[in-house]
Design brief:
The protein is of the alpha/beta class. Helices cover about 40% and strands about 15% of the residues. Helix 2 (about 35-45) runs parallel beside helix 11 (about 235-245) and helix 12 (about 250-265) packs parallel to helix 14 (about 325-340).
Length: about 350
């Protein structure tokens, strides 16, 4: 089976499992798990921040960042198709009690002008803007990468209005590898930065929230406990995260090359519409137009051929490359897609 549904399907490799089995552990609620402490140090340093907090999921990383930086009844500016709006079960409203103010971006990317227009005036009537959140790479936008200049311009607007910024960097390292901009250079503009150790980096679970502010770190830690995200001998998971950061960042370039290659192959298949130039990282969105097969029938037929992809719209499919997909599997996937559409 060639599983292109998401990079979340990656499984820990034998050597990652070995590192997990060997991990030294302790009770992390007492701050005594040496492997978690090490992961937090390494992860913070990697994004140029003073400290980081290990959390079970990227969703929790985002939600704690919102909860710790925006009082209930405040507003958070986000892009309209972001993960926080679509895939976090309304947690921003249900748990943080914040209102999301969304801006419709291009391929998921907001401009500084749009963000500035969304910041509320400081007057006794208006709701107040507490936070600006940016997603890089942008998942639903197509795995798109924020140009550093756009982030700098948004940061200038945020600073002028004294609004902090959060980076949902679930796939930050895909952006880093694709753009050549360092993680620290991106992260410099944000009070909180989250990134996933699972997905393309291959760990089974876990994310980090990084920050420079010790007071904010304490709030994040308190809310992590409140939300049920504090763990005990989680060094076993942290060991997988350390392994992922050491071995699986640079190789994301292969996933990006595979996505480009698949896009180029798909472009040549009658009935498929895709512009390979839109493929910036490890995701490709393509349209399927067949007068014989509906989209669900196409996805089902492809599954019969041993290829899994997701339908994400009336005619649109998403395929995602990752560390469990080889160059050869990409060629096979393209062959099978062509066969199904013939
Ligand atoms: C995957 C993802 C997250 C975190 O999701 P979890 O399922 O909680 O790991 C957050 N933001 C984006 C953009 C994501 O793609």
């Amino acid at each position: 089976m060639i599983d292109l549904r998401s990079d979340t399907v990656t499984k820990p490799s034998p050597s990652m499992r070995e590192a997990m089995a060997r991990a030294e552990v302790g009770d992390d609620i007492y701050g005594e798990d040496p492997t978690v402490n090490r992961l937090q140090e390494v992860g913070a340093a990697l994004v140029g921040k003073r400290a980081a907090l290990f959390v079970p999921s990227g969703t929790l990383g985002n939600q704690l960042s919102l909860r710790a930086q925006a009082e209930p009844g405040r507003e958070v500016i986000v892009e309209g198709r972001c993960h926080i709006i679509r895939y976090e079960q309304g947690a921003a409203a249900a748990l943080a009690g914040v209102q999301l103010h969304w801006v419709t971006g291009t391929q998921g990317l907001m401009t500084a002008e749009q963000v500035e227009a969304a910041i509320r005036p400081k007057d006794p009537y208006s709701i107040q803007t507490a936070l600006i959140s940016i997603e890089n790479t942008h998942n639903a936008g197509g795995g798109t990468v924020y140009p550093l200049s756009t982030i700098q311009a948004i940061h200038a607007v945020a600073s002028a209005h004294q609004v902090p910024m959060h980076l949902d960097g679930a796939r930050l390292f895909n952006a880093v590898v694709a753009s050549g901009v360092s993680a620290a250079e991106y992260a410099r503009h944000f009070e909180t930065v989250t990134f996933c150790l699972s997905k393309g980096l291959g760990a089974p679970a876990g994310s980090l929230i990084a920050t420079d502010d010790p007071g904010l770190l304490e709030r994040l830690r308190r809310f992590r406990r409140m939300y049920g995200g504090a763990m005990r001998q989680s060094g076993i998971l942290a060991a997988a995260g350390l392994y992922a950061l050491k071995h699986n960042i640079q190789r994301l370039a292969e996933d990006h090359a595979h996505a480009k290659r698949l896009a180029t192959r798909l472009q040549q298949i009658p009935g498929v519409a895709i512009d390979p130039a839109t493929v910036e990282t490890n995701m490709l969105f393509f349209e399927v137009h067949s007068n014989k097969l509906s989209l669900p029938a196409f996805v089902a037929a492809l599954k019969q051929e041993g290829v899994l992809i997701n339908a994400v719209g009336a005619h649109t499919c998403r395929a995602v490359t990752h560390l469990d997909v080889s160059a050869e599997m990409i060629e096979q996937a393209a062959d099978r897609i062509a066969r199904v559409l013939k």
